[in-house]
Each structure stands twice: as structure tokens, then as C-alpha cells.
Amino acid sequence: MRKMLLAVVVIVLLSMIFAGYAHAGIWEKAKSWLTGEVLALVASTLLAILGSSFGLVFIKISRTFREAGEFMTILGMAVEDRRITRDELANIIKEGRDIFKVWG
């Protein structure tokens, strides 16, 4: 995620820098195709990719919270009588592992 965000930022910055050179007359060929519309298309594509990656992270975070809620429910029921049996401990461990399976 961090690498992709860095790549997106670098691409957008390079596009902004080279667009100025293209319109200054340094690159004549690039001047013909590197316009504001092309840069807007590139920026919107990159923002769509970035938005979808944030959406995937949001889904994982929401699943993590759901699993953590289930873990807390099992833990609360097990501790309610101030005694944890083997079956309750097995359920607690299973639910604890489920939290980390979301990211694994």
C-alpha cells in the first residue's frame, strides 16, 4: 500500500513537472500529446486506483472490527462465571486467530 501510494505521488509529480517543460517548448513531440486533458485523464485514473485500494483496506478494517467484536463476545461469555473451561479457551483462541486471518 505504501509503495503504491509513493508510486502514484511520484507519477503525478513527474507529470506536473514535465507538462511545464513540454509547454515551454523543450519537447516538441511531447507538447502535441501532453495536454491538460491527458494529465487530467492520468490523474483521474491514478485517483481511481488509489480509491479502490483504500476501499480494499476499508473492507479489511471492517472485517477486523467484526472479528474483534466476535472475539470480545466469546471472551465476555467465558469470563462471566469467572472460570474458563477448556472449550471456552479453545473458542477464545479460535476467535483470536480469526482476527489475524483477515490480514494474512
Q: Can you tell me about this structure?
A:
The chain is mainly alpha-helical and 104 residues long. It has 4 helices and no strands. The two termini are 15 Å apart. The mean pLDDT is 83.
Helix tally equals: 4
Q: Tell me what portion of residues adopts beta-strand conformation.
A: under 5%
Average predicted local confidence, pLDDT: 83
How many angstroms does the end-to-end distance come to?
Answer: 15 Å
User: Main β-sheet, in a few words?
Assistant: none
Integer-rounded radius of gyration: 25 Å
- How many strand units? 0
Fraction of residues in helices?
over 70%
Order of helices and strands: HHHH
Runs in which pLDDT lies below 50 for 5 or more consecutive residues are: none
Shape call? rod-shaped
Structural class: mainly alpha
Describe the structure in brief.
The chain has helices at 2-23, 28-33, 36-79, 86-101.
Which SSEs are present, and which pair or pack?
Elements: H1 2-23, H2 28-33, H3 36-79, H4 86-101
Helix pairs in contact: 1-3, 3-4
Q: Which features characterize this protein?
A:
single chain; 104 residues; rod-shaped
